[in-house]
Design goal:
The complex is a heterotrimer of chains A (404), B (382) and C (183).
Chain A (H helix, E strand, L loop, with lengths): L20 E5 L11 E7 L2 E8 L7 H6 L7 H5 L6 H16 L5 H30 L2 H22 L8 E2 L2 E2 L7 H24 L2 H7 L7 H6 L5 H4 L7 H4 L20 H25 L17 H6 L1 H13 L6 E8 L4 E8 L7 E5 L1 H13 L7 H8 L3 H5 L1
Antiparallel strand pairs in A: 1-2, 2-3, 4-5, 6-7, 7-8
Chain B lengths: L1 H37 L19 H12 L10 H17 L10 E2 L2 E4 L5 E4 L3 E2 L10 H22 L3 H32 L4 H7 L3 E2 L3 E2 L2 H4 L1 H14 L11 H4 L9 H26 L8 E2 L2 E4 L2 E3 L6 H33 L5 H29 L1
Antiparallel strand pairs in B: 1-4, 2-3, 5-6, 7-8, 8-9
Chain C lengths: L3 H9 L4 E5 L6 E4 L4 H10 L7 E9 L7 E8 L6 E8 L5 E3 L8 H12 L2 E3 L41 H9 L10
Parallel strand pairs in C: 2-5, 6-7
Antiparallel strand pairs in C: 1-2, 3-4, 4-5
The chains are: A mainly alpha (404), B mainly alpha (382), C alpha/beta (183).
């Protein structure tokens, strides 16, 4: 990994003493949002070597989880991939529910699918918008942000917060959907698809945009699989791997949607894959809202669910049950599991070890962003300095997820 | 003495009121309100002048005051003399170039008559230069020479800041500006051949010729290809989007402007806008007929061989009316082109460095040379 | 299909396997550390298994059990879509494992993370440094004997800017992998 760069650099003209320049594209730089640091060795504008350094946002997620109860972990999962917090919430809830061996009611699965796709919309719009902004198309960025605002309005109505939602619970959700959710979704959906069409018109056939994005940051299939890439980045290389289709969870097995797959693995394909996934997410939400039926949202397993407030205040069993669940945490039987879902950036995995108490013994997050940053130096080396920008943007590394 | 006073008034009016005024207004209206309109938002409207928000114009004054009051930083290890010199080197050419831009034809102290080939002669009087600061027979050459000096400013700013990002910005900007100056000059050679003069005012006069009695021979009509080439090259020369990679915010932070703050920064930003207005003025003069209003002449309206003379009993009134209209036409054309450049900035992404070089050397340059050959051929045939 | 992978490992490397189970749908094999690289390579190259995707590497600190540590590898196959969890048992006194960076590119950073958090050394890794924490950090935080509120000594962060290629090469090559108080 740290090979001698003098091997790759050969002086062209023996009389001219030139040497490569080292540039710190450091943590505080407009393009390295999410704070990463690239130490680039440049020959003019060509990148000879790139050394990535992450961890500027490391907050000790895994250690904190070991000191909290199972339910207290949810706010921490919000702050992993903070542009799509619901996907993290639900991924974690799914893992613990598997360990517990409980089933959530059907309506909860439908709502989890819907809210998960809404979060995915937010993630993809952020990636497309930021990519356009850093290439100079500021207008496209603001259109994408408008779309994201609409999505966040919906999220706020249902969960109460725009970004750090803490909406999932083990065995269910915090709350049901609002009664006017379907009507609001209709409005949002129209405007969203309009903005989508406008962004397509502004960017997709724009000669300058295509020149910047096509042929840059090329990821091959083998490199993608070897370096652990997943999600839209891997699908842009032609590998048809999507956890929602291959190992369905929640209600993904019952609804009809397509997974866009690219072919060349360059930035343009990644951009197109994300734009297509936006349309597919809208499709999924439409189908779910048609098929969802009223019903209970939380499981009724007393080991997991807080009892009714009436019972808590009026019966001793209710009060004890409430007390024990809140203070000691849900008693998850001992065991370990690796559970994975499709987050906005790829496969988000939770490897959870439980020792039978109310606090997790270990939670490991397989965060797609950290793994992608491990291989990103391969995408930069050999290309120009200005190609780093679209590549880094379409990879969509989110700092909270990368640094845990 | 009177001459000096007139010159001073001209300088104040053209350079300070018009050029700097439009440039500063453009920072507000173009950069903020126009972009806000395109991007579906409102733009700044909070700075109020005695309770009136005036479309956001007080923001510009607020900005100016803020810029002056900021701390003037000097990066550690920077070359102090060069660091301070660079903004001046960028600002100076942007302003001095205005010396040759004519806003209106020379003023005739007698009366004006238009000949059959649409040239105007001054009878019983002489031409006085009231509407451009300098009457120069090499106006175009002067404008180009001055624009070339601004390359120094960007390069020195990049070097003197002791910052690798600034250095990259300075290198990019000098390479880009030098490359596109060639295409700029060559694309104008065709215009030069057709009008036969370097004097900008004479060039605009020559654009008054009505071909077949109805088509004004504006530069864009006789040299459409040169118009596009010059427009693109001019955009690249002033480092406007999509050629703004020397200030490529996402890659090299702010390019050569990174280490500047307070008034020096304000000067560099302002000079970029003044240069934008300058290029717009040059395009207006060379290709869009400058101060010419189609079919309008100092002694009446001519169209298809007909000649109407409103205010026939008072030719002076008509003459003053013509002067107002012509100055207004010039101002409108400049504003339109500035607006166009801002629209391009807010819609298009920016190029990559090697794409800029490819465009300049492999596409624009051959096209300008081809344009030159074809123009020469057509001129010899006709 | 559930037992196919476990059977494969047990047939080929019978004396490395300590235990195996399929609880909760996760096929898991617990193995000894000596021939880890061979086992993973066999799993990757064999046509019936083709585990070409390394999902994650992590470690678990079972504080009150001996052996104390386990390093967990989760492997997956893009073609067959099956998953296997390998748990390698390690003693605290001998926290070394073979590095898999030649088999999977992603192992480079994942092993660095395990070194960073648990102090497990990977032999043959070209660049074993901390990835999420800063170089001057002392200790391995995810171990159970590292208190969550432990404070770090104030250090002068080393001058990291290297302006010439020679200095930078020296910095990267000879950098000792700093970290654990225990060595």
């Amino acid at each position: 990994m740290a090979h001698d760069i003098n091997d790759t650099y050969e002086p062209i003209d023996q009389d001219l003493h030139t040497e490569p320049m080292i540039l710190q594209m450091g943590p505080s730089h407009p393009a390295t949002h999410g704070t990463v640091r690239f130490t680039l060795t440049l020959d003019g504008e060509k990148v000879l070597k790139c050394e990535t350094e992450v961890g500027y946002l490391h907050r000790g997620f895994e250690k904190e989880c070991e000191a909290s109860t199972w339910t207290q972990v949810f706010p921490y999962t919000d702050r992993l991939n903070y542009v799509s917090p619901l996907l993290n919430n639900f991924g974690y809830a799914l893992a613990v529910e598997k360990l517990l061996g409980i089933q959530v009611p059907e309506r909860c699965d439908w709502i989890r699918t819907i809210m998960g796709e809404i979060s995915r919309l937010s993630d993809h719009w952020t990636s497309v918008g930021a990519g356009a902004l850093e290439l100079g198309a500021m207008t496209a960025f603001l259109y994408a942000i408008e779309a994201r605002e609409l999505v966040w309005d919906l999220t706020e109505q249902v969960t109460g917060a725009r970004m750090t939602v803490s909406y999932g619970r083990i065995g269910g959700l915090k709350d049901d959907l609002t009664p006017d959710f379907a009507a609001n979704w209709k409005h949002v959906r129209e405007r969203l698809l309009e903005v989508h069409a406008t962004t397509h018109k502004l960017l997709t056939r724009n000669r300058i945009f295509v020149d910047r994005m096509q042929g840059t940051g090329v990821l091959t299939r083998e490199m993608g699989i070897s370096y652990g890439y997943t999600g839209p980045v891997l699908r842009s290389t032609g590998v048809d791997y999507d956890v929602r289709k291959d190992h369905p969870y929640f209600k993904y097995g019952e609804i009809d949607f397509e997974v866009p797959v690219g072919s060349t693995g360059d930035n343009y394909d990644r951009y197109l894959v994300r734009m297509d996934e936006i349309v597919q997410s809208v499709r999924i939400i439409d189908q779910c809202l048609e098929r969802i039926q009223p019903g209970p949202v939380n499981s009724d397993d007393p080991r997991v669910m807080l009892p009714d407030k009436q019972k808590v205040y009026n019966t001793i069993e209710g009060m004890i049950s409430h007390f024990k669940i809140v203070f000691e945490g849900i008693q998850v039987p001992p065991g370990e599991i690796y559970s994975y879902t499709e987050a906005g950036n790829g496969e988000l995995g939770f490897y959870i070890v439980s020792n039978g108490t109310g606090k997790p013994w270990k939670i490991h997050v397989r965060s797609p962003s950290l793994i992608m940053m491990g291989g990103v130096h391969k995408l930069f080396e050999g290309s120009m300095l200005a190609d780093i920008i679209p590549t880094f943007d379409t990879i969509n590394m989110i700092g909270g997820e990368c640094d845990k | 003495m009177v001459e000096v006073l007139i010159t001073v008034i001209k300088i104040v009016a053209i350079v300070f009121v018009f050029a700097m005024g439009v440039a500063s207004l453009m920072t507000l209206l173009g950069d903020r309100k126009q972009s806000a309109k395109i991007q579906n938002r409102v733009g700044p409207n909070q700075a109020k002048f005695f309770g009136f928000s005036l479309g956001g114009i007080p923001h510009f004054i607020a900005d100016g005051i803020k810029m002056i009051l900021k701390e003037n930083t000097m990066p550690n290890g920077a070359n102090k003399w060069l660091h301070t010199l660079a903004p001046a080197l960028i600002f100076f050419p942007a302003l001095v170039g205005w010396a040759v831009i004519p806003f209106m034809d020379h003023y005739c102290t007698g009366s004006v008559r238009t000949l059959a080939d649409y040239t105007e002669v001054c009878i019983d009087g002489e031409w006085k230069n009231y509407f451009s600061i300098m009457h120069s027979d090499a106006g175009l050459l002067f404008a180009f020479a001055i624009a070339a000096v601004s390359v120094y400013g960007a390069a020195i700013a990049g070097w003197a800041s002791n910052n690798k990002f600034s250095l990259l910005g300075g290198l990019r900007s000098s390479a880009q500006m030098i490359s596109y100056e060639v295409s700029m000059g060559l694309s104008l050679a065709g215009v030069l051949m057709i009008y036969g003069t370097l004097n900008l005012n004479e060039m605009v006069r020559a654009q008054g010729y009505l071909f077949g009695g109805w088509l004004p021979m504006w530069g864009i009509v006789v040299q459409p290809l040169a118009f596009f080439l010059f427009f693109l090259a001019g955009l690249a020369e002033t480092k406007r989007a999509p050629f703004d990679l020397p200030e490529d915010e996402s890659v090299i932070v702010a390019g050569y402007i990174t280490e500047y703050s307070s008034m020096k920064f304000a000067i560099m930003q302002l000079s970029e806008y003044v240069a934008t207005v300058f290029i717009a003025a040059l395009i207006a003069i060379l290709f869009l007929g400058g101060w010419q209003v189609p079919f309008l002449y100092a002694d009446g309206i001519r169209f298809l061989g007909n000649h109407w003379q409103p205010f026939a009993e008072n030719p002076d009134l008509w003459y003053y009316f013509t002067i107002m209209l012509r100055i207004g036409a010039m101002v409108l054309k400049v504003l339109f082109l500035v607006w166009l450049q801002f629209m391009m900035r807010w819609t298009l992404p920016r190029f990559r460095y090697d794409q800029v070089m490819t465009l300049g050397w492999k596409i624009l340059l051959p096209l300008s040379i081809a344009n030159l050959f074809i123009t020469a051929l057509i001129l010899t045939i006709l | 299909m559930a037992k196919k992978l476990i059977n494969f490992v047990q047939n080929k490397f019978a004396d490395e396997v300590l235990d195996s189970h399929s609880r909760l749908g996760n096929d898991t094999v617990i193995i000894k550390r000596e021939r880890l690289a061979e086992i993973v390579e066999a799993l990757r190259d064999e046509a019936t298994t083709k585990m070409d995707f390394l999902r994650t590497i992590t470690a678990v600190d079972y504080m009150q059990r001996l052996p104390r540590f386990e390093v967990v590898y989760v492997l997956y196959s893009m073609t067959h879509k099956h998953m296997l969890t390998l748990r390698v048992v390690l003693e605290e006194s001998d926290l070394r494992l073979a590095s898999l960076h030649k088999l999977y590119g992603t192992a480079g950073w994942q092993e660095r993370e395990v070194w960073d958090m648990y102090g497990v050394r990977f032999d043959g890794h070209p660049d074993l440094r901390r990835v999420l924490l800063y170089e001057e950090f002392e200790g391995h935080p995810l171990r159970k004997d590292y208190a969550k509120q432990a404070s770090q000594p104030r250090v002068e962060l080393l001058a990291r800017e290297r302006d010439s290629v020679e200095e930078f090469n020296v910095y990267v090559k000879d950098r000792p992998a700093t970290g654990s108080r225990n060595g």
